[in-house]
Amino acid sequence: MNLSLLLQARQDDPMRVAVIGAGKFGSMFLAQAPRTPGLHVAAIVDLDIGRVRDSLARIGWPAEESAARDLDHALASRTTWLTDDVARLWQEDRIDLVIEATGNVNAAVEHVLAAFAHGKHVVMVTVEADAVIGPLLHARAEAAGRTYAMAYGDQPALICELVDWARTCGFQVTCAGKGTKYLPAYHASTPETVWGHYGFSDQQVASGDYNARMFNSFLDGTKSAIEMAAVANATGLAPQDAGLLFPPCPADRLASVCCPASAGGVLERSGTVEVVSSLDRDGNEVPRDLRWGVYVTFETDNPYVTRCFAEYGVVTDPSGRYAALYRPTHFIGLELGYSVAWACLRGVATGSPREFLADVAAVAKRNLRAGEVLDGEGGYTVYGKLMPAPASVSGDCLPLGLAHGVVLARPVAAGAAVRWGDLEHAPASLAATLRRELVAQHAPPSH
């Protein structure tokens, strides 16, 4: 409860942070960083320094604050060095923490492992990497004595916080998740069709830092699958066999909808994750939707607690046993400093993937031909589907995070998962190598 006081006490010796990737999430963090006591952004690393300067101008960052000629100068003058030289970070012991916000799975894995090898904490914005090998990265952090944290402000970390609250209060967690805009037809959405689904005009898109592939990942179900995989692996809430159902649900009916079917809800069982839709299946908006928010549903078997729920106006299911707590919105990168402070000041992660319970399989958006090149998250060829990890592994499913730039050796029908055996050649990246290591660690024992 006193992080802000601890930050105030660090003004003369601030936390020294480097940001890798100055896209939308990174820019939102940077907009707040100069206003946060005890925090010094010593370096911003990006392949496109011109884009960084444009982003900084957009958020109102003073030009003189990013004029450091090198990292030594930045650290001495408390200004910021703009660079494309990520290797320089690993040579500098005074950098306490790295924010990985590239959005690129392969680059993120390399950056995270290098950070651990050089004694730095990591806040992982690139949740796509968590969905591929998150538990292994968590284990590497523990071995290095560093903190590996989900990014607060992004929905997975906020969901983990709600789950932790419920369990700490002695409640059994029934379900946890978030809201989104969803219709089944969105699974086939592409970067060409995405703005029409959102209702954005050409002028609106041209006026801001809108990324068609990123927004399409939100719409086609991929980002929901990725984020719920991260939540499941961090909390022990295993996915349902069917993955995500995306039930339409107002915020005040969470306790009735996100509980087991045996209790009148939609879930296969208790102790899972789910994403609720802000649209009914006919396309009409759900009243009091949770499109931007996160939630946890929980239950009690104690009649006294049920009576307390009623006495204090807690909205429950008809039985009175199931209740919900939700947060109606999230502030994305504007809240990221919370993760930085927890990691640097207390060595605590705002969520971290510990178990391999959930996976995200690449599923064909349309009939794919042999010889086609998969284009990964938010693209034209595949979307991500949440699966229990044992089912994904036994089914030889290709993780969505590795389904970029690989060539199909045979056709894949629309709606079918892409298998490793469908590829001409398996990806040879470090992320793919570590994925095989993670799977081998969780393979069932031979008899």
Task: Extract low-pLDDT stretches.
Answer: none
CATH topology annotation of the largest domain: Rossmann fold
Give the C-level CATH assignment of the largest domain: Alpha Beta
Strands ordered across the widest β-sheet = 3-2-1-4-5-6
Total strands: 14
Rg over CA atoms, rounded to whole Å, is: 22 Å
Terminal CA distance: 51 Å
| Tally of individual helices | 17
The chain-level structural class is: alpha/beta
- Write the CATH architecture name of the largest domain: 3-Layer(aba) Sandwich
Beta-strand proportion:
15-25%
Tally of separate domains: 3
Shape call: globular
Commentary on this structure:
It is a single chain. The chain is 35% helix and 17% strand. The protein is an alpha/beta fold and 447 residues long. The chain folds into three domains: 3-153 and 333-346, NAD(P)-binding Rossmann-like Domain (Rossmann fold), CATH 3.40.50.720; 156-182 and 221-329, no CATH class; 358-441, Type Iii Antifreeze Protein Isoform Hplc 12 (Alpha-Beta Complex), CATH 3.90.1210.10. The strands form four sheets. A six-stranded parallel beta sheet has the order 3-2-1-4-5-6, sandwiched between helices. A four-stranded mixed beta sheet has the order 8-7-9-10. Helix 7 (127-144) runs parallel beside helix 12 (222-235) and helix 8 (155-168) packs parallel to helix 12. The radius of gyration is 22 Å and the shape is globular. The termini are far apart.
